[in-house]
# Entry
Amino acid sequence: MAQREHTDIRGWGADEDPRNRPGVPMLLEPRVRGGAHWETPERQPPPEVPVLKRASLEELTPVFSTAIPPKGLSGILRSVAYDIPEHHFRHVALLLLADRVDVLESRLRTQPLRSLGTVLSLAGGSWLISRLRK
# Structure
């Protein structure tokens, strides 16, 4: 009965003919396409600033970014996170924490007085701020 109800829906059913299934190309093995002018990509020169890489990599990938080098407490947290294998939750959690710390660091650099209250309250300083206001 269910088969007859959905026969008017085009492409209904996973056992459809593979030529008519839009997901089949994703299930096939990728083909090697020609046209590249190299066998292995040319390597960038060694970086002048620290570049973080996965613990499983022996060397840096052929292309990497040095636009924003790690700095401050967020940089320390990131370097600790990259020493932990990617499949551990601690790796992702430390990277998320490093992002939040980086936001606080940049706010402190651009708006030090305005951000001081935020940093103090996050560090448990809300009690101190309430006492100072009295």
About this structure: Helices lie at 2-5, 24-27, 72-82, 89-110, 112-122, 126-133. The chain has a mean pLDDT of 79. The chain has six helices and no strands. The CA atoms of residues 51 and 66 lie 7 Å apart.
